[in-house]
Each structure stands twice: as C-alpha cells, then as structure tokens.
Specification:
Length: 401
Amino acid sequence: MNILVLNCGSSSIKYQLLSIHGNADLLAKGIVDRIGIEGSCLLHKVPNQEDYLVKTEIKNHKTGIGLILKMLTEQEVGVLNQLEDIEAVGHRVAHGGETFTEARIIDEDVKKGISDCFELAPLHNPANYDGIKAMEELLPGVPQVAVFDTAFHQTMTPEVYLYSLPYDYYERLRVRRYGFHGTSHKYVAEKACKFLKRDIKKQKIITCHLGNGASITAIDGGKSIDTSMGFTPNEGLMMGTRSGSIDPGALLYIGCREGMDSNELNDMLNKESGVKGISQLSSDMRDLATAAREGNERARLALQMYAHRVKQYIGAYAAELNGLDILVFTGGIGENNDYVRDLVCKNLQYLGIIFDDEKNVGLHGQDEIISLPGSHVTVMTVSTNEELVIARETYNLTNVE
C-alpha cells in the first residue's frame, strides 16, 4: 500500500512516499520550501539516485502539493506510474486540542476540529488544513488520515495539564498544557521496549526528544503522564532558538524597558533565544560542541545550560514516575550528539544509572544501549521516524488490501 505522508508548515511541505507491506520501504522524500516567498523550490530525493532540485514560483500549498505529485510521477525522477498508485495520505497535524486523542480518518467533523484549533496553533494548523483541502481537490476520493502531535499527551491528568491561572481562562480560552512531539515520544518508547523485549505496560520510561525543538515526556505503562512542552512548544527545555520556560516577570520587565510589543517579544523568545541567544554563535549543537572543545566559553556555557535543564526534567519525571526503567535519547541531538548525552548523564548515579562512556562516543543515529550491564536504568539512543509512524497509523485506519 503506497502512502504519501505530508507535513505542511507555514511556508514549507515535507513529504515522504512509503510502501507499507508488513515492512515499510521509502520510495521518495523531499521538501517544498519558501512557499509564497521569493526563491521557492522543491528538493526531491529518491534512494540511490541524485537529488533533484526544482526552482520555481510556488504561490500556495496547493501549488506545492501539485508539484510533489508531478515529481512522484515524472518520467526521470518519479517512482510511480500514475497518481492512482497513491492509496492513502497521512497528515501530521500540529494541534488536536482536547478533541483528538488518536489518529482519525479525515471527514467533515475532523476538519472542523482541526480548524477549531487555529487559534491554538496559528502557524501550523491552518497550513495542515490547507494541505488536507489541497489533497481533496488533487486526489479526490483518496482516504486521508490526521495524526495529531498533541494526541499522545491527552492522558495527562488535570493537576498536570492545568496552569495556576484563574480557571476561567481554561474554560473560555482553553489555556492549558497540551504537549507536542507526541508522535515521536510514543514511537521511540514502543521501539525501545520492542528492542529490549519488554512489555511497555510494565515500564517506566523517560523519552528525551532533543532536536532544534526539544521536549521530554514521562511515560508510565505506555501512557504519557507529563511532558515538558505546554500551551505552546516554547515551554520547557532550552532549545535551538527558543528560550524554554522563563519567569514571565522577566518578559514584562524586558518589554517595558525595551518598548517591545507582544510580536517582538514572541520573535525574541522563539527565534533569538535558546543556545543561539546564549552562545551568539549558532543554534546548531554540532557547531557549539566543536567550539566548546576548542575553548569557546559561551558555547560551553550554552551546552551546560542545555544539559542542566534536560537533567532537571529527568529528575522531576523520575519522581513523578516513582522510579525509572528506561531513559531514551532521540531526535537530531539525542541520537547524534555524544557530547550532550555525556553532559546529561553525568551525576545520575542516584537513579541507578551507570553510563557507558566508551559506547556513547561516536554513536550516531542507531538503536543502542549506552548504559553498562549493572545499570538499574537502561539508557538508550533510539532513532525516531515520525513519518513512518504517520504512515503506519494511516495504513491501520485505511488498509483496503
């Protein structure tokens, strides 16, 4: 069954075409970038072939998706004979609010639910919706599935997801903690248990999804009980360019002293803060690790701050879980940056973690145990694949074979 997976952002569309027949085979992937902006283009990749770049005006998401479909069936770089070979489409949808607790086949009610969350995710849900509408027009009759980034965290209880604000704001404005990266956290927790041959329902797990955006989740018996991101993806950890959690009084003070309005403060928090803001060098952990090893103190400070906050959440979530069986590192940083993993895992002996320094060094993108045999907690790197999860969810809901 050929499934097209779409991740529509405000000005980009990431895509993968996968063939699901028990196993999953990647047929093609790529990105449409700078939609509605000068310099728009599509980068199309087929395994074992040279990448194919198309530079052309791409006015909107429908135009972008039309170009994707053209590439998939194009004679030289395509992988399909005809568009009818696409049997289902899976969409990453950023926000499902309190309505969606699992993936859903898209119908009018689901589309309304997605649009009802526009205010909660103004940059992402409208783009996700546009992608769905475009596919309805370009591939009419092909089933579509929405996989929600927030769904996995809907098992959190009120004492966890509510803010200590007047309750009226929750009732009227839906202000609460929702969490994100749920697709990844669920996937790597299940994958780790399968790798270790353990029953996830009997495991206490902390998953650290560390990328340019980063979050940590506490999982008890396969269910999310707490996660670091909140009403927006800016809560929680320090990230590439996002501040993470910060005293709101500091924002009021900065805004007042600098004469910054809410849009300027939002840009500062999301685009100029995090490790980029501290280091004044880069938001890329690889650059910072190299600079730190060469003696750059601001790079070293940024990395230490980052690791400190990850460690804080691990300690807090171990307390919430009343123990810990598995600690997972995933995401671009979690899977590939041994420097950060080493900083995080130092001084976690109180949890029963005995870290394998030698195994950790140079480990990139693999599913591997990086704790020693005597460790009470199994520490792992686990590669994530959100597109594969979306494809499998789509397959499970639409399989007509």
